[in-house]
Amino acid sequence: MVTNVTSFGRSGLYDWLIQRVTAVVLAAYSIFLIGFLILNPDLNYAQWSEFFNSTCTRIFSLLALLSLGAHAWIGLWTISTDYLKAMGLRFIFQAACGLVMFIYVVWGVQILWGL
Fold first, then answer.
1. Cα angle 104, 30, 63; round to 5
2. Which of 3, 23, 78, 96 is deepest in the core (most CB within 10 A)?
3. Each residue's pLDDT tens digit, 68-79
4. What pTM was computed for the model?
């Protein structure tokens, strides 16, 4: 049986719900970006920059970035608990995934907000 050491006491239903909500956010963000690209066929750098300088776009992009991190964490946690039976290997895998996701989120925030 898999222990709940790295799940922080979450239930399976909570993980399932977060997966679904983040998937909807990511789908909506993808549609939003594709719609912008379709509506602006002669897109240039100035328009693209103006689009991402909009506060609404930045907030939606941040939400999508956080959703991607949460979605990936739950997916990778599930994979690691299902397939990595050695506790040490599972811990190293999960720690590496958590570190990489943290770095990506911080990097994404810096890119979006210019911090």
1. 45
2. 78
3. 999 999 999 999
4. 0.83
